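Page 37, continued from 36.
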């Protein structure tokens, strides 16, 4: 069986960081994801999807992501239910994130994004890998001469 969700969208509000009574970090945020088609008025509609991140990923998301940021979220769909104050059963669908990545640089997001420059322009965060640090473009100097001495060559 497979339960995998991949979303790309913008945060509709700043993430909310909380801690369980056991001290486990949990962050929730909402992602606006555009639909591929337009409505009868020619306007593009969006779906607003609740996202939940746990532990280290929760703290990272809360510290570095702000409203309006373009992000990619990978995770699983979870349906849970609870009883409200009136005794009615309420069902909630949400994505439990395994991986969240920035998809735009700080300059593209605007100076008020709250993005920490120490993580580079496209720093990604994965609960299994932690902070991968600055991402550098290995092809940035493509086409320019490389200064290599004969002693550096293996042949």
């Amino acid at each position: 069986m497979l339960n995998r969700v991949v979303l790309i969208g913008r945060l509709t509000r700043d993430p909310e960081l909380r801690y369980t009574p056991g001290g486990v970090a949990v962050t929730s945020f909402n992602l606006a994801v555009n639909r591929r088609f337009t409505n009868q008025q020619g306007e593009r509609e969006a779906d607003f999807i609740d996202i939940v991140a746990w532990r280290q990923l929760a703290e990272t998301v809360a510290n570095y992501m702000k409203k309006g940021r373009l992000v990619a979220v990978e995770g699983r769909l979870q349906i849970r239910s609870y009883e409200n104050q009136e005794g009615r059963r309420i069902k909630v669908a949400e994505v439990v994130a395994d991986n969240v990545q920035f998809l735009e640089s700080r300059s593209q997001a605007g100076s008020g994004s709250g993005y920490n420059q120490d993580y580079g322009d496209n720093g990604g965060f994965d609960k299994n890998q932690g902070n991968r640090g600055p991402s550098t473009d290995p092809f940035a100097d493509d086409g320019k001469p490389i200064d290599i001495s004969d002693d550096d060559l293996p042949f």
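The longest strand covers residues 25-38. Flag for discussion at group meeting. Residues 55-64 form the longest helix (10 residues).
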